[in-house]
Design brief:
- By secondary structure, the chain is mainly alpha-helical.
- The chain contains four helices and two strands.
- It has a two-stranded antiparallel sheet with strand order 1-2.
- A hairpin with a 5-residue loop joins strand 1 and strand 2.
- Helix 3 crosses helix 4.
Length: about 80
């Protein structure tokens, strides 16, 4: 690139440079968005369950429920153990 390594790393710390790089990334990745969606939908049509799950997650139609179980210990501020 014609710059020193120190200059490159200094640029990485600058907000203006990060915004510039992010804008370039957005520009080039947005141009491929339709291709990516088409590939995902094709995988869904082929029965790929991971792709189907991802599709519904991206569309906001799927939310995974968490099952949390185990022992619970309730301790109040004074340190007194109320219930196990």
């Amino acid at each position: 690139m014609g710059i020193s390594r120190a200059t490159f790393y200094r640029w990485l710390d600058e907000d203006e440079y990060k915004q510039f790089v992010n804008a370039l990334i957005d520009k080039y990745t947005d141009s491929e968005l339709s291709t990516v969606w088409k590939a995902l939908i094709e995988q869904c049509k082929n029965g790929n369950t991971q792709a189907i799950k991802l599709y519904f997650e991206l569309k906001g139609k799927y939310k995974q429920a968490l099952d949390i179980s185990g022992d619970v210990k309730v301790i109040f501020e004074g340190g007194e153990n109320v219930r196990d």
